[in-house]
């Protein structure tokens, strides 16, 4: 009976892993071990939650067990209590781990935007663009893009402003799709996008689980192939907790990109750095410390010609 013995050994190891995780945590490790021990795919877990009147997306469940997000809202905490029942765990076992970890949440909080989150958000973005009947290729090539990000007194991503210089590569282009990707636990339905120069706001869509806001910016003119255009818009956010980095993902090779991050004088980080990441499997590289301007409380980077991948600025709090 070698197969039966192997199965018993695996089951015993899985149970031991779960018991250890429930004793010492952290929460996401215990949740992942419990789901694995019960052999339930996330879709089935979501189904069981739904039958109990608790609505949680599969993406959120995935984030929770990866440690990319933590349940914090009342509905999310209700889901955790329901998960204890669904996964046949001792009462209060997961809630206790959340409470124990809360004192260290700031130190343990993951990076605000991982490459994985960009990959997951890209699928959401495709669906939102389909809802708006917009093609992924908007017919514009970016010649220059300057972003200014504001970090508020609560260390939150307060908002950002984007100034674009583009050239049409086909006739008839009359709009741009603006995308804002908020920090974990953000509320995109409470964000506000403002058209500032040479454009006006059209239709908008949000996806709560990934924190994505998508909005049309209408030009009030139809560009011909080769025409250039300048426009500017801003996003008011401030809906999430402590921010630790701002990341911009790029597709094909493009033009110049400049990113400036400004901090409230009442909440300054201890250090800042720039970084790059070429693919989801690649480690982060290109790390370079960035001095914070004493007068303007800001740091910046300039990339003369962006390449496929991720570019960003991260910072550390005390």
TrEMBL record:
Domain of life according to the entry: Bacteria
Protein name: XRE family transcriptional regulator
Originating organism: Streptomyces griseoviridis
Taxonomic classification: Bacteria, Bacillati, Actinomycetota, Actinomycetes, Kitasatosporales
């Amino acid at each position: 009976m070698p197969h039966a013995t192997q199965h018993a050994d695996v089951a015993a190891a899985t149970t031991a892993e779960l018991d250890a995780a429930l004793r010492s945590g952290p929460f996401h490790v215990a949740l992942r071990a419990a789901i694995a021990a019960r052999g339930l795919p996330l879709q089935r877990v979501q189904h069981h939650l739904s039958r109990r009147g608790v609505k949680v997306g599969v993406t959120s469940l995935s984030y929770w067990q990866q440690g990319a997000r933590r349940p914090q809202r009342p509905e999310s905490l209700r889901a955790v209590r329901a998960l204890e029942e669904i996964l046949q765990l001792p009462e209060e076992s997961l809630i206790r781990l959340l409470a124990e970890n809360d004192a260290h949440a700031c130190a343990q909080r993951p990076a605000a935007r991982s490459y994985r989150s960009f990959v997951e958000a890209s699928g959401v973005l495709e669906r939102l663009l389909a809802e708006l009947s917009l093609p992924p290729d908007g017919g514009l090539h970016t010649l220059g893009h300057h972003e200014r990000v504001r970090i508020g007194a609560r260390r939150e991503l307060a908002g950002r402003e984007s100034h674009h210089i583009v050239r049409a590569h086909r006739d008839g282009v009359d709009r741009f799709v603006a995308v804002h990707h908020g920090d974990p636990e953000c509320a995109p339905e409470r964000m506000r996008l403002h058209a500032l120069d040479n454009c006006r706001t059209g239709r908008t869509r949000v996806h709560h689980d990934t924190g994505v806001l998508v909005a049309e910016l209408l030009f009030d003119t139809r560009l011909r192939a080769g025409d250039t255009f300048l426009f500017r818009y801003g996003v008011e956010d401030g809906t999430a907790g402590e921010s630790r980095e701002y990341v911009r993902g790029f597709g094909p090779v493009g033009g110049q990109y400049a990113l400036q991050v400004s901090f409230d004088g009442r909440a300054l980080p201890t250090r800042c750095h720039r970084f790059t990441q070429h693919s989801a499997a690649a480690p982060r590289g290109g790390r370079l410390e960035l001095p914070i301007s004493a007068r303007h409380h800001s740091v910046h980077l300039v990339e003369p010609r962006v390449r496929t991948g991720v570019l960003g600025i991260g910072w550390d709090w005390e």
